[in-house]
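Ticket #4471: structure output looks truncated?

Reporter: J.K.
Steps to reproduce: submitted the chain below (72 residues) through the standard prediction queue, then opened the result file.
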Amino acid sequence: MKFVVVVAMAAALSACTDQLLLRAGNDPADPAISVPSFQYAPVTAGTLDYRPVEPKSWLERNQDVAPRQGAE
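Returned output as attached by the reporter:
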């Protein structure tokens, strides 16, 4: 029974200790640290317009894919 009391007291006292602060890198609260400037980039930058367009005539389409004269 004494062992349970000792474990309970150890657990209660361990909650009162300072928490260990683990940091990787610089302190975020340090005002002397330089910060890169913010560059705004719109979300739609570089997108293509895929709106519907009127179809070309079938004559133009056939001329685009037809074999050239003298190209054999």
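Triage note (M.O.): checked the attachment and the full token line is present. The radius of gyration is 36 Å.
Status: closed, working as intended.
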